[in-house]
Amino acid sequence: MIRLEDISFAYPGSPKILDGLDFELHQGDRIGLLGHNGSGKTTMFHIIMGLLKPDSGKIEIFGKPAVSEKDFTLVRQRIGLLFQDADDQLFCPTVLEDVAFGPLNLGKSEEEAVEIARKTLDRLGLSGFENRITCKLSGGEKRLAALATVLAMEPSVLLLDEPSAGLDRNTKEKLVAVLSELDLSYILISHESDFLSDIATTIYAMEDGKILTDKELHLHRHIHAHPLGTHPHSHKP
Amino acid sequence: MIREAFSEENSVLCRLDPGVRIVMASAYSCAAAVLKQFSALSAALVIAVILLAISGQNIRVVAKRLIAVNSLIALFWVLLPLTYPGDALFYLWSLPISRAGVILSAQMTLKSNAILLVFIAMIAPIPFNTLGYALERLRVPRKLVYLLLMTYRYIFVIEEEYHKLIRAAKIRGFSPKTNLHTYRTVAWLVGMLFVRASKRAGRVYQAMICRGFKGRFYSLQRFEISRIDRFSALLMGIAIVALTMLEWGVRWS
Ligand SMILES: Nc1ncnc2c1ncn2[C@@H]1O[C@H](COP(=O)(O)OP(=O)(O)OP(=O)(O)O)[C@@H](O)[C@H]1O
Ligand SMILES: [Mg+2]
């Protein structure tokens, strides 16, 4: 569904962040993405959504090359991006309006949009939050509300940028439940390898501007703590 | 913390349509602003007090606002009588106190308090987002309305960022003094705040286009003008006409 080929990218005036990156996402894939802070994970998501233009390389989404702004307008209707900072994503006055914003932009009628918004909120356990003012939610509530705004667009692919950050264990479990019952392909960035191994079927790591696939990386759950326990690492046979 | 002191909906006034309330309050303010006769001005103040009583706002909060505004007006009471040209009302240690200056100050005091009270009674309790959409329905340009709504949405975020920066400075032992180091640090903090705000604006815009933003927001709030709305608007109209009649009538007799 998503193919990135030999993508390179650098922010103006800084060294290359992505350097010859190749990546593929197929229908039904649930990919977890690990990587150090600043390794370019968020940047890659923004490139997929067309928010940043790569310096070189090819992007192919749903079988079609995505180049112009118009291509990406269509892409954005089918790929949902959850931003790293939920405050960026909630900009309408009330939660219901925020969740209904996407469907309304997709040309749904008001009744349909409200219906979708309510259902989505219900599914995330946010019923009763409809008329809350978005800036007065707690951090975790904001995150769930932001996820609701993305899910309400009924995308076929989700890009989740650290959805688990700042959530307590209960909320995290709810998130895991919601994500695993969704019939969606997704890529998920997280620094918590336990959370990743719960809901991702494949785990990739980002390093030196490239994505290392399974062969080079093997992730396992650590019951006891050891110095590398929180970092992905490979074990030589 | 930035707080909305008046955002409680509990009185009869709060059941009126917000758009109607805005129109009523604005019409009243325009009328009150042009009044000159003290009889009319006092009547206007009485109307304002009645509206405030109906609105049931917390008197202490209202008093705080009034004190803030009136301390500014007090400045005029010092300046105008001393500087305004015209006959002297009396002499204060051989300084002439201008009659016209005193009258003008008194008019100003009555007017501003009346208008302030009406706004506290009618407009201040409207939740901010409702206010935005009510303005949009009154044909205020969309861009202005969205500017207002977005400002409201992000002022809290920016405030939080401000506190974060201050805290970051404090935990490293920063305490403001009058020296160059302090000025420089404060300048950095302010600059940082601007940088963060503009980065934030960029990211919010990205989030908006990711969700198919086409230049429009959609309000899900329904407004309907009911019989009480029409009736109150009528009452306000009568009150305004009465005020103007008082103003002109006194002059003719
Ligand atoms: N707007 C920008 N301008 C310049 N450099 C940037 C900008 N945004 C990010 N960078 C730099 O690009 C690099 C990659 O950033 P990115 O946000 O993609 O990292 P990340 O993998 O998502 O990290 P994290 O795990 O901390 O979220 C970082 O070194 C960062 O400093
Ligand atoms: Mg990131």
Strand order of the largest sheet of chain A: 6-7-8-3-9-10
Q: Write down how many β-strands of chain A occur, each being a DSSP E stretch of 2 or more residues.
A: 10
Number of strands of chain B: 2
Largest sheet of chain B: 2 strands, antiparallel
Order of helices and strands of chain A: EEEHEEHEHHHHEHEHEE
Could you give the distance between the termini of chain A?
34 Å
Question: How much of the sequence of chain A is in beta strands?
Answer: 15-25%
CA radius of gyration of chain A? 18 Å
Measured as a percent range, the helix fraction of chain A is: 25-40%
**SS content category of chain B:** mainly alpha
**Helix fraction of chain B by DSSP (H/I, runs of at least 4):** over 70%
Mean pLDDT over all positions of chain A? 85
- The unreliable regions of chain A are 220-227
**Could you state the order of secondary-structure elements of chain B as H and E?**
HHHEEHHHHH
In short:
The complex is a heterodimer of chains A (237) and B (253). Chain A is 34% helix and 22% strand.
Account of the protein in words:
The complex is a heterodimer of chains A (237) and B (253). Chain A is of the alpha/beta class and 237 residues long. Chain A has eight helices and ten strands. Chain A has a six-stranded mixed sheet, with helices on both faces. Chain A has a four-stranded antiparallel sheet with strand order 2-1-4-5, with helices on one face. In chain A, β1 and β2 form a beta hairpin. Chain A starts with a strand and ends in a 25-residue tail after the last strand. In chain B, 22% of the residues are buried. Chain B is built from eight helices and two strands; from the N terminus they run αααββααααα. Chain B folds into two domains: 13-126 and 224-248, no CATH class; 141-210. In chain B, 71% of the residues lie in helices and 4% in strands. In chain B, strands 1-2 form a two-stranded antiparallel sheet. Chain B is flat, with a radius of gyration of 24 Å. In chain B, α2 runs parallel beside α4 and α5 packs antiparallel against α6 (142-170). The longest helix of chain B has 31 residues, at 180-210. At the A-B interface, α2, α3, α4 and α5 of A face α5, α6 and α7 of B. The structure holds adenosine-5'-triphosphate and magnesium ion. Adenosine-5'-triphosphate binds at residues 11, 14, 17, 35, 37-43, 84 of chain A.
